[in-house]
Design a protein that fits this description.
The strands form 2 sheets. Strands 2-3-4 form a 3-stranded antiparallel sheet. Strands 1-5 form a two-stranded antiparallel ribbon. By secondary structure, the protein is an alpha+beta fold. The protein has 5 helices and 5 strands, in the order βββββααααα. The protein has 2 domains: 91 residues, no CATH class; 71 residues, no CATH class.
């Protein structure tokens, strides 16, 4: 979160690098205005309510469970504003290829279940496995995985996505 820097911080930077026509996109973040600062290594998402370009700014970091992730993100921003490469996004916020595949499967499984598809039908689409007998299906690891995908997608929809966004 960007805020006007207190007067005691005389050396606070002014974000003169921001060009609203090219580099930034103003968008709402939970009712507050924000800036998305494009970066090839990963964009910077800044909550910037009631600030003006040209004024000295400070970064506010709440002392919460995500402090370490926010501090890493603030250091990336500082490097970018100093004219250096920002570096990769904090590891806690980066999705591994495996995690990305699982999230896509979760969405597809949830979509199937919401359309009244059976777990067996969902598994056939997601995993392209040959049809199993009822006995084989009952003890199948694919069945258990499909049920977990639907269950985890439901949790994600009911607020679990916030943990994902917080890097957990």
């Amino acid at each position: 979160m960007l805020a006007r820097a207190p007067a005691a911080y005389r050396s606070a930077r002014i974000l003169d690098q921001l060009d609203p026509a090219h580099d930034t996109l103003h968008a709402p973040f939970d009712g507050e205005s924000g800036i998305i600062l494009a970066d090839t290594a990963g964009d910077h998402y800044l909550v910037a309510d009631a600030i003006a370009l040209g004024q000295p700014l400070a970064v506010l970091l709440p002392l919460d469970d995500s402090f370490h992730v926010r501090a890493d993100a603030a250091l990336r921003l500082h490097r970018r504003l100093s004219g250096r490469l920002a570096g990769p996004i904090p590891r806690a916020l980066a999705l591994t290829p495996r995690h990305r595949v699982r999230l896509v499967r979760m969405v597809r499984a949830f979509d199937g279940r919401s359309s009244d598809a059976s777990y067996r039908e969902i598994a056939a689409v997601l995993f392209r496995t040959p049809r199993q007998s009822a006995t084989e299906w009952k003890t199948s690891s694919i069945r258990a995985q499909t049920i977990r995908l639907v269950r985890d997608a439901q949790k994600m929809m009911l607020g679990g996505y916030l943990q994902l966004l917080a890097g957990r």
